[in-house]
Amino acid sequence: MKVRTEARRNVILEAAVALFKELGYERSSMNELAKRLGGSKATLYGYFASKEELFRAVVQTVAVSHLAEAAAELQEVSETATLEAQLMRFGERMLFVLTNDADALAVYRMVLAEAGRSDVGQQFQESGPTEYIRTLAGFMEAAMARGELRRLDPHVTALQFTALVTAETQRRLFQANPEPVSVEEIRALVERAVEMFLAGATPR
């Protein structure tokens, strides 16, 4: 029963992603989703109590779950991995999701489009970025305690690092059909970001 329930939840999420991509957040509704799924609205509400809860699940699934996992891995300090190597690994995983995952890109675009008209932007922040930024900040704080980074606000430091990683790819949000970014290109982008970050964040 548990397997069937999880499978059904995944089917709902897939349909919700398609619905949000097509209609945007405000125009999408639980009624329309139930109609497309061919089931009852009561069944749908059995999985997600509201459109807001459904949206948070979509954000977690397609936009930030990989980033949360990557940030969590940073907490597993390795004796052989340098700070630079750990930042490179996180940055590469982050950029791969943001540049080559069509569903994730669609969610980010939807949030940008709707943020000025509703609380969807706040929901987005609470559903994903806040979580992995908090974890990344914990990693930065630990690096500061080891003397690998300057003593600064770890939360701000985490935000600055992610901003550098995404600096050269932000334009993709405004392109109709951006070309995929190769693994080699992603590595080069992240290398430049990590180099710039460490130039300003390491002890002087």
From TrEMBL:
<dbReference type="InterPro" id="IPR050109">
    <property type="entry name" value="HTH-type_TetR-like_transc_reg"/>
</dbReference>
<dbReference type="GO" id="GO:0003700">
    <property type="term" value="F:DNA-binding transcription factor activity"/>
</dbReference>
<feature type="domain" description="HTH tetR-type">
    <location>
        <begin position="6"/>
        <end position="66"/>
    </location>
</feature>
<dbReference type="Pfam" id="PF00440">
    <property type="entry name" value="TetR_N"/>
</dbReference>
<feature type="DNA-binding region" description="H-T-H motif">
    <location>
        <begin position="29"/>
        <end position="48"/>
    </location>
</feature>
<dbReference type="InterPro" id="IPR009057">
    <property type="entry name" value="Homeodomain-like_sf"/>
</dbReference>
<keyword id="KW-0805">Transcription regulation</keyword>
<keyword id="KW-0804">Transcription</keyword>
<dbReference type="InterPro" id="IPR001647">
    <property type="entry name" value="HTH_TetR"/>
</dbReference>
<dbReference type="InterPro" id="IPR036271">
    <property type="entry name" value="Tet_transcr_reg_TetR-rel_C_sf"/>
</dbReference>
<dbReference type="Pfam" id="PF14246">
    <property type="entry name" value="TetR_C_7"/>
</dbReference>
<keyword id="KW-0238">DNA-binding</keyword>
<dbReference type="GO" id="GO:0000976">
    <property type="term" value="F:transcription cis-regulatory region binding"/>
</dbReference>
<protein>
    <submittedName>
        <fullName>TetR/AcrR family transcriptional regulator</fullName>
    </submittedName>
</protein>
<dbReference type="InterPro" id="IPR039536">
    <property type="entry name" value="TetR_C_Proteobacteria"/>
</dbReference>
